[in-house]
Write a structure and sequence with these properties.
By secondary structure, the chain is an alpha+beta fold. Helices cover 18% and strands 32% of the residues. It has 14 helices and 49 strands. Strands 9-10-8-12-14-16-24 form a seven-stranded parallel β-sheet, with helices on both faces. Strands 17-18-22-21-20-19-23 form a seven-stranded mixed beta barrel. Strand 36 and strand 37 form a beta hairpin. Helix 6 runs parallel beside helix 11 and helix 7 runs parallel beside helix 8.
């Protein structure tokens, strides 16, 4: 029977079986394109020996790497080495075929292998308009404005690495010339960095501009824009004032002008930042659906262990459901940051004859003052074809929109001696869209106002404009709530992620000058640098803060917010969506109480009540007594599609009050009685420390899983009927349902398409005789053993794996393989659930393939 006919008969049989057994329609797909797979041919090889940052010597690391290479050569294992790591990670990134990948775990000294994920330039939502006042509003949300203005903190002396698309070296908000290409790197503000990739680099093989060949150089100038926007949030000091406007920046460029990078390049950048002595590393990037064991998270953890604060965005995969957080933000010691929407759009205020005049700053404006006054004269259209209606020399020139460009009006007014230019709309309402062409940093302030305010000024006999430092905010309906795109935790090992949150929705910041200089963008990419900047202020305030303590300090003083879905109901948003809550920089800087640990992972509810001992320290000059209480946040059910429930966990304390002596510490035991619903859901809440006298309230978030974590099914039936046994013809997978014959030449070998509805701890493929279902060899029958597998991003996504027709040689499994004879076989694929016990059969899911006929 031919394969094609066989397929049609079997497909009809499976359709009936699915309808009867599952109540579901069976897969209509007979073929899938290889480009639809979420697999890769680039892999990390992690060796068993620790890296240098883990306490090993460089000579030992290199000896272990050479030993691996020798063993791989002896085993005839073919791969192309891409990068070698020894400081933060011990191992390699390699390009290797799916067939050879199956042999990797058999090489002595190999601890684990992981896919080298493609990190896409983070998808952010850009919008026109906005003003520097929007950034000022965001600073107010975190208390950074108070830290700057009342505590005189600006990040002086602190070095912050931006691992991203580079930073525009010419941008005036970083001390550049404002002209493209005229500022030389390094500068006073951007003093460190490196370009690892070059302009044309793009690691995404599905992209039309795919170019995996890096062309590194020493100038990390930004042509993509993302890194400049992120850097501005951390430390711009010009038209935009960032969180820590006097930090020293490091620009570590891992993205080209467009496209993607790879995880191994990000680790390379981390190692460079470490060697450059950076105090803080910000990574507004990540690979979603990963484990904390993923190499970028491991490397980031070792940075923290070596004294570097690491902050990373938790990801923009909120639409993809729970457990969607990304690495490196999932790292055990990394501060993984969620996003809240900005409170609203803001405008700065001037006054004319006691009337408030809100304004937006034009793109090509110079610095706008916050004090001072001048007379105002109306100069009309102010186009090249129209004479000015009045002489604006030494005064503020008021022009009306229309006929010619904003830039033409401003240039004519400035040429006539105007000290500032105001352009009012020629229709009702405020300006919409872009406020000017990207002409660079102008010589005088140029601002836009409404038609109504413009006509008011023109009606005044002697109008006088007064600049102020005040702003007015137009509230956003979602302001102060978790952004819709912000990723959910928990981590797949049930650690509490994200850790905390900061403003990330609708943030106005710097952008490359050749692309306009400034822009409003949204993403967890924008929330992470708020936290990196906050850490810089705290380090300036107290340089003795250990990197391992920074997250606790920020979490203790954070403030959880109401559910973004319906805040009117009064429920707190999920802990596994917002962590400890919105950071409060000023409260963290002024805190005299320190609670460790700063978060509690209660684990599986099946185990019963969970008790955590908290240590409460008091650096103040007087004893303080706290009343202890708890409050539930919302719970969620599901994985890829979440549902929401009122939380029903309860908390008890070894003592309901706690007195902490001045300069001392004490402990309290917190017992969390896990939520009972929803089944296979996540729950969480907050332990609240309220002072009996006046003072600051502190909180510790907790989260856990409802019931038995191994109750989540991994190999869930999908619309495409995965798992598949398949053949690969060119770029197309064709499904096989009963048996298929393979020559084992080229790509003509068995392929397995697997959909993971949840993360898997471990997967192995066992080779069995088709007739007897007995192992091909009594001991050495396992192949393609893999650990820490991510879940698929969608309900129909899949990974592909293959078997090359070999098994381990009976020499003890030292990487030697031998062909199995021609004949009929099946592969038993066994998947261990997250946190599962290898010795408990109930924690495994098993799929048996159709018959594989090998005919070489």
């Amino acid at each position: 029977m031919s394969y094609q006919k066989h397929f049609k008969v079997a497909r009809n049989r499976l359709t009936l079986a699915c309808m009867l057994a599952l109540g579901l329609p069976c897969a209509a797909a007979e073929q899938l394109n290889i480009s639809d797979s979420e697999s890769t041919n680039l892999w990390f090889i992690e060796l068993s020996d620790k890296p240098v940052a883990g306490g090993n010597s460089k000579s030992n690391v290199r000896a272990a790497q050479n030993k691996f290479k020798d063993a791989a050569r002896d085993a005839d294992l073919s791969f192309v080495e891409k990068r070698r790591f020894e400081t933060l990670f011990n191992g390699f990134s390699v390009e290797i075929s799916a067939a050879n990948r199956a042999k990797l775990m058999q090489i002595p000294g190999v601890k684990a292998i992981y896919p080298v994920e493609v990190f896409h330039a983070p998808a952010v939502e850009s919008s026109e308009g906005g003003s520097a006042a929007d950034m000022a509003v965001a600073l107010g949300m975190t208390g950074a404005n108070f830290a700057q203005n009342s505590m005189n903190l600006d990040g002086t002396g602190i070095k912050v690495a931006i691992i991203d698309s580079g930073i525009d070296i010419d941008h005036p908000d970083f001390g550049g010339s404002g002209s493209n290409g005229s500022t030389s790197f390094p500068t006073t503000r951007i003093a460190y960095g490196y370009d690892f990739v070059g302009d044309a680099f793009n690691a995404d093989p599905s992209s039309a501009t795919y170019n995996p060949v890096p062309t590194p150089d020493f100038n990390p100038d930004d042509c993509g824009g993302h890194g400049t926007h992120v850097a501005g949030i951390v430390g711009a000091n010009g038209r935009v004032k960032g969180v820590a406007p006097n930090v020293t920046l490091g620009a570590y460029r891992v993205f080209g002008c467009a496209g993607s990078t790879s995880a191994d390049i990000i680790i390379e950048a981390m190692e460079k930042a470490y060697n450059d002595g950076m105090h803080i590393v910000n990574m507004s990037l990540g690979a979603a659906f990963q484990w904390p064991q993923y190499p970028t998270a491991q490397a980031a953890d070792r940075l923290v262990e070596k004294g570097v604060v690491v902050v990373a965005s938790i990801g923009n995969s909120g639409a993809n459901g729970l457990y969607s957080a990304g690495a490196p933000g999932l790292g055990e010691h990394v501060i993984g940051v969620a996003s809240y929407d900005n409170l609203g759009s803001a405008q700065q205020i001037a006054t004319v004859n006691n009337r408030d005049i809100p304004y937006n700053i034009m793109t090509f404006s110079g610095m706008v003052p916050t004090a001072g006054s001048s007379d105002v004269v109306f100069i009309g259209q102010a186009c090249n074809t129209d004479p000015l209606l009045a002489n604006p020399a030494g005064k503020t020139a008021l022009a009306v929109r229309g006929v010619c460009s904003f830039g033409e009006k401003a240039a004519n007014a400035i040429a006539a001696g105007a000290t500032s230019v105001v352009i009012h709309n020629n229709a009702a309402g405020a300006f919409s869209g872009t406020l000017g062409a990207p002409l660079g940093n102008g010589p005088v302030p140029v601002v836009a106002i409404t038609q109504q305010d413009g006509l008011f000024i023109r009606s005044q006999e002697n109008p006088v404009l007064n600049w102020t430092n005040r702003i007015v905010v137009t509230p956003s309906a979602t302001g102060g709530r978790i952004s819709s795109f912000s990723s959910y935790g928990l981590s797949p090992d049930l650690q509490l992620k994200p850790d905390l949150g900061a403003p990330g929705g609708n943030i106005f910041s710097t952008y490359p000058m050749e692309a306009g200089g400034f822009i409003t963008q949204s993403g967890t990419s924008m929330s992470s640098p708020h936290v990196a900047g906050a850490a810089a202020l705290l380090l300036q305030n107290n340089p003795q803060i250990p990197a391992m303590s920074m997250r606790n300090i920020l979490q203790n003083s954070a403030e959880p917010k109401l559910w973004s879905g319906n805040p009117a109901l009064g429920f707190l948003d999920m802990v596994h969506r917002q962590g400890a809550g919105m950071i409060n920089v000023a409260s963290s800087a002024n805190a005299t109480t320190y609670i460790t640990p700063g978060k509690i992972a209660a684990g599986e509810g099946e185990a019963g009540p969970f008790t955590q001992r908290l240590t409460v320290s008091n650096s103040g000059s007087e004893a303080v007594t706290y009343q202890l209480s708890s409050v539930n946040a919302l719970s969620t059910g599901g994985v890829i599609t979440p549902s929401f429930f009122q939380g029903n966990a309860s908390v008890s304390f070894s003592s309901d009050t706690l007195t902490v002596p001045a300069g001392g510490s004490t402990t309290v035991d917190v017992t969390i009685n896990p939520a009972m619903t929803p089944v296979n859901g996540q729950y969480g809440g907050y332990i609240v420390f309220t002072p009996q006298a006046a003072g600051q309230v502190y909180r510790v978030p907790f989260a856990g899983f409802v019931g038995d974590y191994q109750g989540i099914q991994i190999l869930t039936p999908t619309a495409n009927g995965f798992p598949w046994l398949a053949t690969l013809n060119g770029n197309t997978f064709s499904r096989c349902l009963e048996s298929c014959t393979y020559s084992m030449q080229g790509t003509d070998m068995p392929w397995f398409l697997m959909h993971f509805d949840h993360h898997a701890r471990y997967m192995e493929m066992n080779i069995l005789h088709a007739a007897t279902k007995r192992p091909v060899h009594p001991v050495f029958h396992k192949t393609n053993v893999m650990e820490y597998l991510p879940r698929n991003s969608t309900a129909t996504g899949f990974f592909n794996y293959t078997w090359d027709g070999t098994r381990l040689h009976s020499n003890g499994g030292k990487g030697k393989t031998m062909e199995v004879p021609n004949g009929d076989y099946v592969l038993e694929i066994r998947v261990l659930k997250a946190l599962g016990d290898k010795n408990n059969p109930a924690h495994w899911e098993v799929w048996m393939s159709p018959v594989i006929s090998i005919q070489r």
